[in-house]
Amino acid sequence: MTCPTEDRISIADVHLTHQGSAGYTHSMMLKGSNRDLLINEARRIASVLICQAQEPVQRPCGHCAHCRQMMSNVYPYWFEIAPQGAASLIRIGQIRELRTKLMSKAGEGQAKIAVLTDAHRMRDESQNSLLKILEEPPQDTLMLLLTGRPQDLLPTVRSRCRIIDYGNEKLIPEQTELDLVGDVIRAIRSQGYRGVFDKAAFVEGSRKKSLQGFFGALEYLLRNGMVESLCRMEKESGTAASSHDLIEALNQVWLAAYLMERNVNALLVLENLFLKLKKLDIRVI
Asked: Distance (Å, rounded) from C-alpha 11 to C-alpha 262?
């Protein structure tokens, strides 16, 4: 993936201008698979906005008080929230707390920066709460949503943000999703039909309406296994199976995703998928 150039985000580009008491409010979505890059870019964009340099072309200068605060991670109006808990979700309580913080008045010449890392890890209720902030944004606020999966966000949320794409590098699934996939495959092989139905119920219950992460991790694992199989690579961990079984498993995953998009009952889709995978010789090693 090509790293964004230093002038990719400028004051002119994102229309961030110092307007005194008139204030400024912007919502931007930074899209990309490299979380560290997105966070660094969020900090740079914020520095452009709060920099005290007189000439716009000099921002961020890296020397003024505000720039130094940002570089030292002590800027008082930087509000960052991230997924929490075993489910790794941004919860509605976090969004409500953020709104309260954003309603406070920033110091003179300063702006409030709200950063949501892995913004796609919000359920609908959290996104709807965030939508209220986007629709009626507090004064002098910059909203930055960082995500590798903008398609998982509500269209109403996406439509209120300017989306900036930082590359199309394949997103590596979260480790929790990969671990769950491995656990499912092992259970199917060791427990048979009991594992099929128990794991289908667990996945459906724990993912509710959002199964994209699970399907994405399963496809990722199978594709990696295919590459290793074709290249005759051996790894300490991964997927062991014949090319035929891996291709058939991928076809079944794609079929399951297709059925999910057409609102077929999620539990039935998962049970059918796991029954098909049970017949294939796929092992997680």
From this structure: 43
> Going by DSSP bridges, is the β-strand pair 283-284/112-116 parallel, antiparallel, or unpaired?
unpaired
Model confidence pLDDT, tens digit, residues 266-281: 999 999 999 999 999 8
Report if pTM > 0.70.
no
26: closest CA among 169, 143, 108, 131? 143
**Looking up tokens 């997924």, which residue turns up?**
83
The identity of residue 267, as a single letter, is L
Cβ partners under 8 Å of residue 164, min gap 6: 9, 28, 29, 30, 31
**CATH topology for 13-165?**
Rossmann fold (3.40.50)
Identify whether the C-beta of residue 253 lies closer than 8 Å to the C-beta of residue 222. Answer: yes
**Strands, DSSP E only, in the chain?**
25-31, 78-81, 112-116, 141-147, 162-165, 239-240, 283-284
φ, ψ for residue 92 (rounded to 5)? -65, -30
Q: Does residue 10 surpass a pLDDT of 50?
A: no
Kind and range of the H or E run holding 281: none
Contact 173, 211 (CB under 8 A): no
